[in-house]
Amino acid sequence: MDMLRRGYVTAPLLGILWMFAIATTVAIAMSFATGSAFRPSLSGSVVWGGIIGLACLHGALWRPVLAAALVVVVTALGFGPVVTGDGISVVSMLLGAIATAGFAAYGLWRILDEVALGENNRHLFEAAVLRFLTGFGYIFFTAIVLIPFYVMVLTSLKNQAELIQNPLDFSIDLGKGFELFRSYDELFTQFNFGTYLFNSFFISVLTVFITLLFAIPGAYAVARLRFSGRATFSRSILMIYMVPMIVLALPIYIAFSMAGLRNSLGGIILIYPVTTIPVALYMLQGYFRGLPAEIEEAGLMDGLSRLAVIWKITLPLSLPAMASVSLYVFMIAWNEFLLAFMLLDDPSKFTLTRGIASLNSSEIPRQHLMAGSVIATVPIMVLFLGLERFMTKGLTAGSVKG
Amino acid sequence: MTDIAPPKGSGPLARREARLAWGLLLPTISAVALVVVLPLLAIFWISVKPVGLADLRAPEVVLREDLRGGPEQAGDAAEIRYRLRNSSQDRVISQVGFTDTVPEGLTVTQLDPRCTLNGSALACDLGDWQGGYRENLMIPVTVEQAYLDAGLRPQDSEAQVRGRASSVLTDSTFTLDNFARIFDGDEFWGVLGVTLFYSVFGTVGALLFGLFAAMLLNKSFKGQGILRGLYLFPYVSPVIAVAFAWILLFDPFSGSANALLIQMGVTQNSINFFGEKPLALIMVTLFEIWRYFPLSFLFILARMQSIDTDMYEAADMDGASPFQKFWYLSVPQLLGILSVLFLLRFIWTFNKFDDIFLLTGGNAGTRTLTVNVYEQAFAISNIGAGAAVAVVIFGCLLVFSLLFLRFISQEEGL
A248, B85, B127, B387: which has the fewest Cβ within 10 Å? Predict the structure, then answer.
């Protein structure tokens, strides 16, 4: 272990790992952006990562700058950590080379801050490793989260022929103007997505209202009132929201088939709130419990009935909790797929998720499928980013359903 | 002088409070009973019944009526024709009959012995029918001017049919075939193994990723809010959208992932990520981790931010290194939330259906118990077997929940 802590071992080691991570990232990013052939080179990363690592040890700033410049030159010559295929424009190749060298040198300079060439104490060494892991973590998580969404959005803007010709080429020809959004236009004009969007919105909002209507009194009772069976009740609520949907979906399907409720939005609205009431109740009762009971008692002393206390005191105090519960319930209803898939067959009554599922056929081009996905994703993202504070709170307030 | 003792039992105030509480809970309890408890009981009932998808519609009497003979003027003879059949090919309908109103201006000349006519009300009793039975019942009539004037045809007054058919769902035939079928052979153990692999690795992976991400964001810096929002994307977007994005990304013929791997020289031929046997299971598990690490990350981050910083300062004074601080201070503090999350997420992953259904449809060795419910009930059209699988799931779940409840009562805070 002590060997590892010597600067001349630590620096090349972290340098190689960091260089390879950066080279891979740059290669993937450049490939996705331009569609040209970039790939990381393991041997290049080992050699140049080691050199930049040593250059970034504690000391004068000119050494990493010089090393980075050197890496740009060798990458351009074809011996660097990132290798390019034939027929790549000089601009994108230079861009790739500079990005690789720059990020590698800057990152290592930060990572190896204070690490000296000789013996280092455990503190310095572990701090350097942690900084390396942190940097790697940011790149890694951002990449895995962004790539699928990037592919989703850009696929929806292309056409089938372009997609098959080069699956890596996500560059967009902005000159096409409105033609880019052709898939969206077709979805709204030929595939009824306007109706689906409205259906989904209508169902989700209604679900939120019905859920709150049921959950608020229930949550208040569990949080504030004393009655025998309270503990059992709040536990059974927890148990209920662990029952898998598919187990319930089967009898619901049978009952709806027999009652003729399949293929009706009314049937969906009957079911959705019940799947969300337990979650909402659990979240709300946690919040109600945190409110000071004294205010409510003061209200009772002044002659308000319990219901008036809930309406005039508890509810206004718990507006933030209402917001997060509403958001969360809206999200569940908006994203719900299984029940909509099983219960709706009539294309005029689809919700968005059901509509997207109907696009999944070999006759419909894939950019339509992705455009549908974007249409379903964007509203929930916008809502979520705008109200992120409530959402984060609501999610941690006791909801683990997913 | 009476003894002074604390009051026993519940006083009127307490009773009023309890009444109010139950009153407030009543809507929730009835809704949940209707949509959760009732279906659960139904699942147990169906699991011991030989029910197929086709049996969901009870056999019924199908009736069509029309006027034959094309009468043109008063005094013409015609026939009201009732075409009747049993909609089921193999099940009996007993005590079949119907009632109908004979339109004004038609005089019945001859009545079928099984029917009675009372004014214009016609009632017929047709006895028991075998499966697939069909009959044409003819009632000869004379047309009068009133009929031709009114223009009402016989089919304009709807006939009321009756008949009692036993539905497989409600009769008293029980069978254990469904359970025998699902436990039969190696298939069941294969499915159970896949489910366990998926649940265990999906849960552990999501927890580890979540822990890593939480540590990254457990410091304030510019853009921390944006990153936190970004890392939640996989969780908040509709599963159907992200599942299809993954399918496209990893498509064996024109997926970007394959193109990238080939270009980088990792592989020569394109890989069928969601179609090969061990790989598909790993891919759906990775998808599960990708989609649910944000949730663990949120919970762990919330717990991390509530840890007292004094402890870390004290450790700094004592010369603890960064890894030591993580291992000896952070991990023990996080153990509680990690274990609660593990149990909860394990149960939820165990219950997960949509993700695998959308990604592979349960093919290529990714069929979990929940997908098996769908597979049995709708792909093989054997509702009974599907219900039997659901009962098995419910049994597993009960065990997990008991474990969880025992545990959560020790772990206050969630």
Answer: B127
User: Which domains occur in chain B, in start order?
Assistant: 57-165 (2.60.40.1170), 177-408 (1.10.3720.10)
Does residue B246 surpass a pLDDT of 90? yes
The answer to whether the Cβ–Cβ distance between A148 and B246 falls below 8 Å is yes
Count of other CB atoms within 10 angstroms of residue A339? 23
Residues A158, A164, A165, A166, Cα dihedral to 10°:
80
And the tokens for B144?
């009068």
d(CA B14, CA B16): 5
Chain B interface mutation, best of A113, A225, A276, highest count of B Cβ atoms under 10 Å: A225
Beta-sheet strands, E only, within B171-245 = none
Quote the mean pLDDT of chain B.
84
Per-residue burial over A321-335, b if 16 or more Cβ lie within 10 Å, else e, is bbbbbbbbbbbbbbb
The C-alpha angle A333, A335, A338, rounded to 5 degrees, equals 90
**Could you report the per-residue pLDDT of B160-217, keeping only the tens digit for each?**
887 777 666 677 777 788 888 878 767 888 899 999 999 999 999 999 999 999 999 8
How far is the C-alpha of B347 from the C-alpha of B370, rounded, in Å?
A: 12
* Distance (Å) of CA B129 to CA A172, B57, B62, B125, B163: 68, 17, 12, 11, 9
Report the 10 Å Cβ neighbour count for B75: 9
Q: Is A114 left (phi over 0), alpha (psi -120 to 50) or beta?
A: left
3-state secondary structure of B95: strand
- d(C-alpha A244, C-alpha B199), whole Å: 14
Q: Tell me how far the alpha carbon of residue B26 is from its chain's centroid.
A: 25
CA B230 to each of CA A155, B89, B406: distance values in angstroms, whole numbers, following the listed order: 20, 58, 35
> B9 or A330: whose pLDDT is higher?
A330
Q: Is B237 on the interface with A (CB under 8 A)?
A: yes
Residues B67, B78: contact at Cβ < 8 Å?
yes
- For the cut 60, the answer to whether the pLDDT of residue B1 exceeds it is no
Q: In this structure, what token pair is assigned to residue A387?
A: 């109200």
Where residue A212 falls among pLDDT bands split at 50, 70, 90? very high
Tokens read off for A290: 């945190």
Adjacent-strand bridge partners of B68: B79
ipTM higher than the 0.95 cut:
no
pLDDT tens sequence across B270-291: 888 888 888 999 999 999 999 9
Torsion angle, alpha carbons of A328, A333, A338, A341, to 10: -160
Flag if B401 and A134 touch (Cβ within 8 Å).
Answer: no
Confirm or reject contact between A85 and chain B (CB < 8 A).
Answer: yes
Is A221 an 8 Å CB contact of chain B?
Answer: yes
Q: What SS3 class is residue B83? A: strand
What is the rounded distance in angstroms from the CA atom of residue B144 to the CA atom of residue B44? 60
Can you give the pLDDT at residue B413?
44
Question: Residue B63 corresponds to which amino acid?
Answer: L
State the DSSP H helix or E strand holding residue A145, giving kind and residue range, or none if neither. Answer: helix A122-156
**Number of neighbouring beta carbons within 10 Å of residue B127:** 11
Domains of chain A: 3-153 (no CATH), 188-396 (1.10.3720.10)
- Note the pLDDT tens digit of each residue in A299-346: 989 988 888 998 988 888 888 888 888 988 999 999 999 999 989 888
Residue A350 has pLDDT above 60, yes or no: yes
| Of B106, B107, B102, B104, residue with least CA distance to B150 | B104
Residue with tokens 């366990």: B196
Predicted confidence band of residue A135 (pLDDT cuts 50, 70, 90): very high
d(C-alpha A283, C-alpha A35), whole Å: 47
Would you tell me how many other CB atoms lie within 10 Å of the CB of residue B173?
10
B30 touches chain A (CB under 8 A): no
Residue A147 has which token pair? 């790539």
